[in-house]
């Protein structure tokens, strides 16, 4: 929670000035009935026009001061709370971006969106309200009670007693409502998650004709949000009538007792009028306080949720852990003032690596994986879905950290690199291609903003994307929609391969990146890649097709997180029956015979 409040600090000055202006406004409001008393009792009852005029002008002047106070407070309150909200949103966003894959797996996208929008808006509004009400309402309420007392002590005491009772009732109602608002935000998370999933998966939903099902599912989640909100609203609804009832009772007392006092010539009519106005002010300030309390309660729930994100420490950070292989070298380099290590040669080694997804039950995703890829060499990875291929390569740029064992790049444990340096050295085409809305060129340059035009064109050519890029009217300037809408799956894959090639990292990983390409295009891509990687790029190719990895220096076959077989294409045909079957299936009997 402290982390949330810290974001107010830069705006503290305006945050504190706003209530001062508000206090000026309240003082002006308190003065009005008082001036009115003399206007009525001295001016109106005796027909003294001078007093009426003089007091009238005075009231106008006081009202003008009140207006300045009101405007000033609104301005400063808006500035400080909007500034606070914007900074907080940026802070949360920065945090989300810094989180590792494992941390992100913990929150649903919908929940992060709710926290970034609804929760922060709630905090923003409450901060604004606090500045405007927190000082003004108690000041107005207490001031009105004191003013009443100065007119008549018994009437003032009655007002004070009733106000205290009303305040206790309102506080009790709020206490009951607090947990309901936490629940409302959780329900809102669910609604956002469902909406977000459906919107981004719209095509799948339609393809499977599951719209009716999804509408029903959404309806149920939405209904839950509705019911929770109504329940909270119902609880809160009691606070308004409680305030009115209390105040109407006081008015009754004042009129009854006040009447007696006027008859006994102890009070004037004007004073009774002023007291009823003060009662209205107390009523107003109590309702405002109630309103503020509701919002504080809601903001409390929201602040907790925002703080949760801010307090999540990224599980993968730059700090070097305990001594492991390479630590000595890295520490020595750091001590001698040398620059932190960078990936230059592109050597990759796995030593007895075990990996289990955080919180996942059952067998680990990887077990006892050891392998070595010399700089400039190519490793092919085959294996059924779920065998751990993507998991294995995700350990190289440290999307996740190993559970046991080590991953080394250029002989240094990946944990000893600065994350930015490590990831600059590893270019990965992920299995799920993600493109952003923008032109093709913007997407290509996304990972390499400084690339020259020639470099961009070369990457496009190598990724076999020239033909369709040139076929569009705008060429590289052609616009692609969100998630790459407007491109076919294969085109999307080629753009994302070109994007990775453009980074010219010493290590290139293709995670099933050519799966949507037709056979011929893939063949051309492989040839182009071979000429590219001759410039000493270490390449890892995950594929379903034997042809994609056939020419690799080494091929490993993964099964349930183990390396079931390894060797060159020829060796595997001889030694691995499963590989032989795969070849027979995909290449035909001749290829297998030829391999032997
Ligand atoms: N983020 C994740 N959290 C938990 N389990 C995961 C996650 N990603 C993958 N897995 C599990 O790890 C195993 C290996 O997955 P993966 O490496 O993606 O397989 P492949 O790429 O070979 O198809 C699977 O059983 C999968 O369910
Ligand atoms: Mg995969």
The oligomeric state of the chains shown is: single chain
Report low-confidence residues grouped into runs of 5 or more.
none
Provide the number of structural domains. 2
Q: Strand content of the residues, in percent?
A: 5-15%
> In which order are the strands of the major sheet placed?
6-9-10-3-11-12
Give the overall shape, derived from the CA principal axes: elongated
Radius of gyration: 36 Å
The main sheet comes to: 6 strands, mixed
CATH topology title of the largest domain: ABC transporter transmembrane region fold
Distance between the termini: 68 Å
Query: Which percent bin holds the helix content?
Result: 55-70%
Average of per-residue pLDDT values: 87
Number of strands: 12
Question: Which ions and ligands are bound to the chains?
Answer: adenosine-5'-diphosphate, magnesium ion
Broad structural category: alpha/beta
CATH class assignment of the largest domain:
Mainly Alpha
CATH superfamily of the largest domain: ABC transporter type 1, transmembrane domain
